Give the backbone structure.
Amino acid sequence: MYASIEVDSAHWKNRGDDTMIDSRKIGAYISKLRKEKDLTQVELADKLNISHQAISKWERGESLPDITSIPVIAHVFDVSIDLLMNAGVYKMDHSKQLGKIVQHLLEDKPEEVAHLINSGSAQVNELVDIAPIIKSSQLSKVSKKMNTNVWDVDSIVHLAPFLQTEALDEIVIEAAKKAIDCKLIQRIAPFVSAHTLNTIADQLLNESTEPMELLDLAPFLEEEYLNDMLLKVSTGKITWRFITEMAPFVSDTALSALVLQEMKNPLNEEKILPLAPFLEEETIDQLILIAGGRGSWTFIQKMVPFIGEETLNTLVDKAVDGDIELKELTELAPFLEEEAIERLLARIDPNKLSPEILAKLAPFMGGSSLGNMVKQLLKTK
């Protein structure tokens, strides 16, 4: 029994050229040839030793004939394989060797197909055209024997879904030896092995301390690899700016470990600020407590939108105990709960409460609490 193969026609129509297989056009052409022969679908199915349902799916453009059935169909209708695959349209500049390619594949001679392409007798596009009806093992055997100079970006992209991973990896690695095309790698990344993607990433990291091209590959790199990459910061092999760009793709745990380590050096506080949106709340709270201990209030003020409620309350308590200057805490007032502010003012020494401080806290206090504090302030003055 000959088979048919399901093909997403829309995928091929997006290639942007007129050399692709179009299952709907081929199906319509088979239907035309069948009617010219005055054959029913059942009669044609008998000749091809397949089900009439398969014929129906071909003619509706829902699937394509298997490569083994292509020569048989061409023979039944007395047309060339080239004409059949081009839906009855003669193309002088294309598919000159398509029949030979199909025949070599049927005879399991991938080296002959590769020779046609390497010699220039056939084009890679012809292989791309029939990729949907070739077994991935056959296609991969052909690709492994093709010269590297015959590949172009378009061909690699469109063959990627049909090649075995190992074969595609070889093509990518060879191409990367000349120059890394990250846009290409990004387009075929879902079909490339993690090992090969890591190799490409390593090459980019070795070439630059700020390989922004790597951002295109980040969504496809393993999280473990990205986490290990953070270790290169301390050695100067990658920049903090690059880490900031990569932050959305790195695990929270690894990023937190990095910033907590770097926080040991006060000079690194400004480097850490851009990473705040990607840090766990627990990590931010630890950073704030460290910064508070060293009096880094500028850092705390910039980080306050990301600080948890519990840590803010801890800062309020430190202000009450006199460990933090009240004027410093007032800068955080927009982010403090009304209850926390009132608790602070209820426990603070009125002599430490100046009109300036009260003015900063007033917009965030309840009316009655504010009135009481004003009265208390007037008494002390």
About this structure: The first strand starts at residue 4 and ends at 6. The chain has four domains: 1-145, 164-248, 251-307, 312-381.
